[in-house]
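The aim of this short unit is practical: by the end, you should be able to scan a pair of folded records and say something sensible about each. We start with the first protein, listed as its amino acid sequence and then its structure tokens.
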Amino acid sequence: MDDKSVRCINGYRVADKILQLVPNQEAFRETLRFVKCWAKRRGIYSNVLGFFGGITWALLVARVCQLYPNYCFSQLVNRFFRTYDQWNWSKPVLLCEVVESVPGIVGLKPWNPKTSIADKQHLMPVITPAFPAMNSTHNVTDTTKRILLDEFRRGYEVVKKVENNKADWKEVHNPFPFFSNDPFK
């Protein structure tokens, strides 16, 4: 297959690999539904606009599921926000080691910040697990990174309040107050 065709079927291959790499598929699916709903309501679900798209949210949730394999849904949501609020974004989010080459496949270069200047400049790298490994967040800018980090922090603060019975779960999903938020204050 040519490069374009391989990349075209990569979405299916990545989704399949994610399911192979998570320890509890049901906990993963439930947590992913919650996170995607949260991201959409907060206005940060859009790869085109420099935020994270669906595959990136799935990769982030899958990594948390790997880190905490015995946690239930509510604990995974807490760890999701805590993990990415505190993540060192100079390091990529990986579900498995990046495979440099596959026998019989020539010409496809996986994500590698050691050999690629473009890969080194990515602000919030989240790497797909199937060959060729790619950064699913190449559109993130300094501005969208700041917004994402603010939202991770907000989500973590609200989830902590929920756990202390000072807030309800629906508060996590409160929509971003787009028309009442004054960015010049």
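Turning to the second protein, read its sequence before its tokens, just as you did above.
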Amino acid sequence: MRFIGVDLAWGEGTATRPANETGLCAIDENGTVLAAGWTRGIDAVAEWVLREARAVAPDGHPEALVAIDAPLVVPNATGMREGEKQVGRAYGRWKVSANASNQALKWLGGVSLRGRLEAEGAVVVSGAAAPAPPAFRLVECYPYTTLVGMDELGYDDERPRYKRLPRGVPPAVARQRRAEATDDLVRRIATLRSADPPLRLESHPVTRALLDERSPLEGPAHKHREDLIDAALCAWTASILERHGESRVQLLGLGASVDSHDADGRPAVIVAPCRPSQRLTSP
């Protein structure tokens, strides 16, 4: 089985302004990184995912579990999806919440990517059942829930501050603190080589650079690094789901009366690793 993580840039770009970078990572069941990198635009992302998903299929049909950090199913015209509300209820103590996604937003690259991959045989699943065939599945995830929901990483009190600059301090101090938080996160991820399931950043030159190099202070370079970290976390989330199922994840939004599915029956579900204290529903 191949597990693919996609830290998707939600905006699709225009003819004059390219899309932001998307981080990408593919691992196997042993946590070995098979491919990793970055690309721009929905078409390029879809091509990368399809190439990796076909790499282990002798008949050329894609076979993979793909975890994407972006809304895949957005049936609600306004407001928040139920799964997004549940992120705040389950993980708010760790200072984790989700942005609202709805059809009024101008950036819904996840929906476009889902359409491209569905045309190649992919199915969006709730996370509980593995359809066979096809064996090309898509799930939506949110790396912050993985960071605080998997106790192997040790974020027992709150999420790591590796994304936005902290407020209330001089810019130089803020950039340094963000870089330190990012380096600490990478060190924690490095310990997952012996986890169940494992993730081995050192097994590929692109992800090994996360271990060998210090986090940059400058914004664009930091974002470049952050996107790869999140892609690796997405791939690991897919592996967690496959290995442990609902004993270690919860399916946020599943069963909601209004927005759990769209008109075509697709579920609006976020696959979120969780500790027992974070679980909203029984496994």
